[in-house]
Amino acid sequence: MTRPLARSTSPRPLMADDRLIRLDGLANPYGPSLAVGEALAVDSGRAASPNCRLAELRHRVATQLRVDPSWVVIGNGADELLRSIVAAFGVETIRLVFPPAAPHELLAFDPGGSHPIDIRRDLEFRPDIDLETAAELPAGAIAVIGSPSDPSGAVLPVVEAVRLCRACHLVAIDERHGGFGARSLVPIVREFDNAVVIQSLETWAALDAFPIGWAVGHPKALARIAAVAPREPAAGSVLAALATFDDLAWVLAMVRRVREERSRLYRMLRKLNLVQPLPSWANFLLARVERGDAVAIAAGLAERGIIVARPQAPELSRFLRISAGRSEETDALRRALIEIALLVD
After folding, report:
1. 290 with 273: CB under 8 angstroms?
2. Are 56 and 245 in contact (CB under 8 A)?
3. Which CATH superfamily is domain 5-30+250-341 in?
4. What CATH number belongs to 34-246?
5. CA–CA distance, 298 with 156 (Å, rounded to integer)
6. What does the alpha-carbon distance between residue 152 and residue 314 come to, in Å, rounded to a whole number?
7. Is the sign of the CA dihedral 156, 157, 158, 159 positive or negative?
8. Model confidence, pTM
9. 231-278, pLDDT tens digit by residue?
10. Considering just the CA atoms, what is the radius of gyration of the chain in Å?
């Protein structure tokens, strides 16, 4: 039983400057590199050109991934690339999804297509594709799966990825959150010409205001994707991406800080008896509420100036998704959860 938190206490702001603490976001809390703003200011004239430096960005991404540039196509963010992949390979094909999943995975398919087949995850929301499951998958299917996935942060193991590629017509692996430390599955595209890996700078490099991403795969598959892309990547996003690569050392240093804070957040939550976090390779943790009600706890945190995400999937009604922020934000979250825990029977 959970007492009405608002009536039982007088919540006070837990940050010295009274600012709202957003632990519901997906982007790096340290923001983009300062080089991004400088590049956009200096090259403001070039930003009007839709093709500005696109070839340079493609080459730099290919160099980073150690593939030929013909194996890379740049797009307006991960969401648009996902939709282009589905459009290129046919919305009428059988679709495989892996709930609970982020809305972009479930909505990438045209609603007019065939009804998707749900491949359930295990108790820790990891994809579980054993030999029997793989053998029963329809051969003409398109699979879309996040690795790490949102909201669980679970990754797709190499073994399961190989089984999917052998069973499906196309496998699209969304690695937009992979920059926070997950092992990339890009090497698998060299072995399977029906595998496409999507990466993005929108989360780990904090370019959510400048959507930019790329698909990596066999040139024949990428040619089909590029042919149906609705538009060229925005010039400002291309400039922002190039500036990010120019200052990659700083960006990766901030990513390391987020990873370290994610580990600290995980340990802190485990020590409390209110929620139980699951291991994650993204910058957020999926935490199961062990005492009380997820809605009431989220509301209690909001009253104290801390916003966390509540996943919408019905099977996650007892879960909260908490993103790693700065160290002082983790400290404020700990104080708030201790206050709330005292009000929960």
Report:
1. yes
2. no
3. Aspartate Aminotransferase, domain 1 (3.90.1150.10)
4. 3.40.640.10
5. 29
6. 14
7. negative
8. 0.89
9. 888 889 999 999 999 999 999 999 999 999 999 999 999 999 899 999
10. 21
